[in-house]
Design goal:
The chain has two domains: 49 residues; 73 residues. The longest helix has 64 residues. The protein is mainly α and 141 residues long. Helix content is 89%, strand content 0%. The radius of gyration is 33 Å and the shape is elongated.
């Protein structure tokens, strides 16, 4: 009886490494498939980014080729500052006026700053700055 149990254990234990190798191979293939999917998504994202960059470069190249009068070219170059400077001046005027009004109403300077410079105001500030400075990265080579 003991020899029968020993031979059965020997038979089944000899199959354990093969089963472990099959299980490991299956997990390796699942992992490799996940890596390939991630690489494909990364490549797709990179391709979309590259296409977007080429589109912007193409637009800039087209705009550089347009030759008009000096007045027209200077006016085109002033569009961004003409849009950004008045908004920044208005923004600063509103913020300073709000701050002074809150301080006159009896709030401390720190509390007044927290009230006037909240998340919405920061989002507006960043939007204006990104509009003004955002396109400059495409002009640099």
């Amino acid at each position: 009886m003991l020899s029968l149990i020993g031979s059965a254990l020997g038979l089944f234990s000899s199959a354990i490494p093969k089963v472990m190798n099959m299980w490991q191979d299956k997990n390796d293939k699942i992992h490799e498939l996940a890596l390939l999917k991630a690489q494909a998504e990364k490549t797709l994202d990179q391709t979309a980014i590259d296409a977007s960059i080429r589109e912007v470069e193409s637009i800039h190249q087209h705009d550089r080729q347009i030759k008009g009068s000096i007045w027209v070219e200077n006016t085109r170059a002033l569009v961004r500052p003409i849009m950004a400077y008045p908004f920044m001046a208005l923004f600063i005027a509103v913020e300073v006026t709000s701050f002074l009004t809150l301080v006159d109403a009896g709030l401390g300077a720190g509390e007044a700053l927290q009230k006037i410079f909240d998340d919405r105001v920061m989002a507006l500030w960043v939007t204006i700055l990104a509009f003004y400075f955002g396109g400059r990265q495409f002009n640099k080579k």
